Amino acid sequence: MVYELYYWPGIQGRGEYVRLALEDAGAAYVDVALVPEDKGGGVPAMERLLTDTGVERPAFAPPFLRTGRRLIGQTANILLFLGGRLDLAPRDWPGRLWTHQLQLTISDFLVEIHDTHHPVSANLYYEQQKLAARRRAKDFRDNRLPKFLEYFERVLTRNSGGGPGMVGKRISYVDLSMAQVIAGLHYAFPVASRKALRTRPRLRALHDLVFARPHIRRYLASNRRLAFNNDDIFRHYPELDG
Questions:
Q1: In the chain, what percentage of residues exceed pLDDT 70?
Q2: What is the per-residue pLDDT for 21?
């Protein structure tokens, strides 16, 4: 089966969490944004599925995944669907729900990261809300960043499955996502993240373990992996790093 992933070109964004799962599993997939428009790809292909009145269950926004006749939206929902199929989630239902819960918590974390540079409105430029961004970023660095990281460090510590990740005996899709979050924090908040991760050795080890996995390492070295940039969720503004 070949999966079709729909997301905006030029940024990693929330689509990257799906890409990491597909890449780690060696799954066959098409990143539709990279397909030329004259061959049925690109942004127009994505927008058609968002606006087509013939689509019974449309996604609100990308990313979304098409597999056969299914169209699945929301990053955590896509990963819940893919987890069992790609062998990146526990086989038992309680384990899958727990993995999904952790992925939803990562989604909450991403909202707070994004809102450090867009605290007033996503429709305004960063330059139009810099003062509010400084205040929001300070609270994030002082309170929210350590709170989230401490929670995930605690989850790693309490994993009764004995594995190196947060769930069970093996690496799951939520571990891939957590490693991506840490990589993004290194880019956006190099000073604050280094300080916050100093006392979270399990998270540091998880990041290194995930990005050393053979398929992930090859993906990072390929032209499929986009660089972090300031049009994305993770943005580096030195004045927000404290």
A1: 100
A2: 98
* Residue 159: CATH number of its domain: 1.20.1050.10
Using the 8-state DSSP alphabet, how is residue 166 labeled?
Answer: S
Instruction: For residue 124, give its domain range.
Output: 93-213
In a domain, 23, yes or no: no
Contacts of 116 (CB under 8 A, 6+ apart): 133, 136, 137, 140, 188, 240
Residue 161 has pLDDT above 90, yes or no: no
What pLDDT is recorded for position 221?
Answer: 97
Task: Count up the domains in the chain and report the number.
Answer: 1
Which tokens go with 8? 């905006």
Residue 17 resides in a domain? no
Of 171, 216, 210, 173, the C-alpha closest to 26 is 216
- The pTM is what? 0.96
Q: Flag whether 42 is in a domain.
A: no
Check pLDDT > 90 for residue 160. Answer: no
Q: How far apart are CA 111 and CA 144, in angstroms?
A: 11
In the DSSP assignment, the letter for residue 8 is: -
Q: How far is CA 60 from CA 55, 72, 75, 100, 121, in A?
A: 12, 10, 12, 20, 19
Whose tokens are 């305004």? That residue is: 124
With bands split at pLDDT 50, 70 and 90, how would you rate the model's confidence at 178?
A: very high
Q: Could you tell me whether strands 3-6 and 29-31 are parallel, antiparallel, or unpaired per DSSP bridges?
A: parallel
162 located within any domain: yes
For the sheet containing 29-31, what is the strand order? 29-31, 3-6, 64-67, 70-73
Task: Name the least confident of 17-26, 33-42, 75-84, 221-230.
Answer: 33-42
**Rounded mean pLDDT of 129-153?**
98
